[in-house]
Design brief:
Blueprint (H helix, E strand, L loop, with lengths): L1 H14 L8 E2 H8 L5 H9 L12 E2 L13 H11 L4 E2 L2 E2 L1 H4 L7
Helix pairs in contact: 1-2, 2-3
């Protein structure tokens, strides 16, 4: 259990770094944690988010820029609303990653 918490803690620390008005993908967060195959783990961790006010999990979308249909904190429309409050344009449930994607290097 300690190992899972350690990975979740790393995920939360990275998600806290996503700038206002930008999004990251599950795969991008997984790569930054150190294992690009952890995209589903990232999703699970964010679904368990212990502090949504400090860990902006709504800024994480899938590899196509789509919001989560099962957003843990109020559903898809809640995630869209939170993104739009930050000036992110969401069209048909998707964000343009070229425009709003977080450009962060792995190191």
């Amino acid at each position: 259990m300690e190992q899972k918490n350690s990975v979740f803690d790393k995920i939360y620390e990275i998600v806290k770094q996503i700038p206002y008005g930008q999004v990251a993908t599950y795969g991008q967060i997984a790569s930054l944690v150190g294992n690009k195959k952890y995209a589903r783990v990232v999703g699970y961790a964010l679904h368990q988010n212990p502090n949504p006010d400090e860990i902006p999990c709504f800024r994480v979308v899938n590899r196509f820029g789509q919001v989560s249909k099962a957003f843990a904190f109020g559903g898809e429309n809640q995630q869209i609303g939170l993104l739009e409050q930050e000036g992110i344009l969401v069209v048909d449930g998707s964000v343009d990653l070229e425009v709003y994607g977080w450009k962060r290097d792995l190191f």
